[in-house]
Amino acid sequence: MNQLYRLSNETVISICNDYLMNINRKYVDVTLEKGEALTITSPDYNEITDLEVIQKCTYLGVRTVSRNDFMLRITTEEKFKFEAVKGDKCGIGLNVINSETGFRTLSVAHFVMRYTCSNGAIVRIVNDANDRVHYGHKEYELQAFLAEQIELALLSRQQVADSIKYLPNEPAAEFINSVYKRIESYLGKNESKNFFDELNEKSTLYDLFNLVTNKAKNYDLGKRVLLENLAGDLILN
Description:
two-stranded antiparallel sheet; single chain; globular; alpha+beta; 9 strands; 3 domains
């Protein structure tokens, strides 16, 4: 998507038509919204609607709902509270992503909120497959997967809290290079080159974690989710 601005409309149309011609199906499904085509999927596509996902999370307390043409993102209320360091209060809820258009998998993860600055991080459920593509499943299999992942996440919140408490003991310098590579792939070279200016040689992994989550708030939904996922991976290093 980040290369489209370099191409003419005619080129983009030609590329899209080439992709369409390579769909080896007699029939396809076209999803419409307000009279516009959002996506084309195969008859084997497994749908779980955004409304279903929201309803499954209602009992947890829905905190935010964000949506674009590619995904729905829900965060739930943080009902598990802890202090990352003394006086730095945090909460853990859930981050659930779905896509009615097939551009993203159905996924469930922890959502860590740092209250002093409203920074958020998305943390994978440890040692488990946390997502499913919308393809090739039995009827209601995605709905069952969503319920199972929510329960797994609720049972593993203490592990996440314990991992975050360890971050101040690690130097940030050991992780800068690997983090920079991912940030550059998300934001491009120009936006990435000054990303770490606020850090110094004494900065800890917790400082790096907070820097990434703070800057994530400046971006649209797609990039914000990528950066918050990156911050979450620092917890599981």
